[in-house]
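Query form — protein DUF397 domain-containing protein

QUESTION: What is the three-dimensional structure of this chain?
INPUT:
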Amino acid sequence: MDLSTPTWRKSSHSSGNGGDCVEVARINDTVAIRDSKDPEGPKLLLPLPALASLTRHIKNA
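ANSWER: The structure tokens for DUF397 domain-containing protein are given below.
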């Protein structure tokens, strides 16, 4: 999967927190997640259903 061309986005809520945030990019049916301080570093790739499940789990924790 080519991760050099997607448009990476971060939450508008992430400004002002010292740069501790993640960025996401959608690539077809997958979401790539990376550390905004290390854009060349590792990326976590999740299928959309897995991201939805993770988000629900976090909100319910």
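ADDITIONAL NOTE: Strands lie at 22-27, 30-35, 43-47.
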